């Protein structure tokens, strides 16, 4: 949509698809966080879970939740204000959360089939968001 103002045209560059993915990602991450937390509690009761590894898994999960909140804030802000810097910060934090998700997928103490499923869905969502963030940053810069 272009609006002419004194010989200039301005257009909206924000990505609706990216904004929808941020919203769906926030909802999914709440489910993901609760599911992983409940599975860690379950595994600590069913299996012999060394205390230091249980603590590590819980600390990483809560750290990931903090990063996710920051990532979604900067991503939403960058997309809606059409600024590449906040969107770039969000993209960088996405890389960190991908690494943490891979930890819960591959290196966690005990890995259940449910862990695999919810982490693969999360990684696919991060991949789609990352691609759309790069496209949005490219649109904002040009």
UniProtKB/TrEMBL annotation:
<dbReference type="GO" id="GO:0016020">
    <property type="term" value="C:membrane"/>
</dbReference>
<keyword id="KW-1133">Transmembrane helix</keyword>
<keyword id="KW-0966">Cell projection</keyword>
<feature type="transmembrane region" description="Helical">
    <location>
        <begin position="118"/>
        <end position="141"/>
    </location>
</feature>
<keyword id="KW-0812">Transmembrane</keyword>
<feature type="transmembrane region" description="Helical">
    <location>
        <begin position="20"/>
        <end position="42"/>
    </location>
</feature>
<feature type="transmembrane region" description="Helical">
    <location>
        <begin position="86"/>
        <end position="106"/>
    </location>
</feature>
<keyword id="KW-0472">Membrane</keyword>
<dbReference type="GO" id="GO:0035869">
    <property type="term" value="C:ciliary transition zone"/>
</dbReference>
<dbReference type="InterPro" id="IPR019184">
    <property type="entry name" value="Uncharacterised_TM-17"/>
</dbReference>
<dbReference type="GO" id="GO:1905515">
    <property type="term" value="P:non-motile cilium assembly"/>
</dbReference>
<dbReference type="Pfam" id="PF09799">
    <property type="entry name" value="Transmemb_17"/>
</dbReference>
<feature type="transmembrane region" description="Helical">
    <location>
        <begin position="54"/>
        <end position="74"/>
    </location>
</feature>
<protein>
    <submittedName>
        <fullName>Transmembrane protein 80</fullName>
    </submittedName>
</protein>
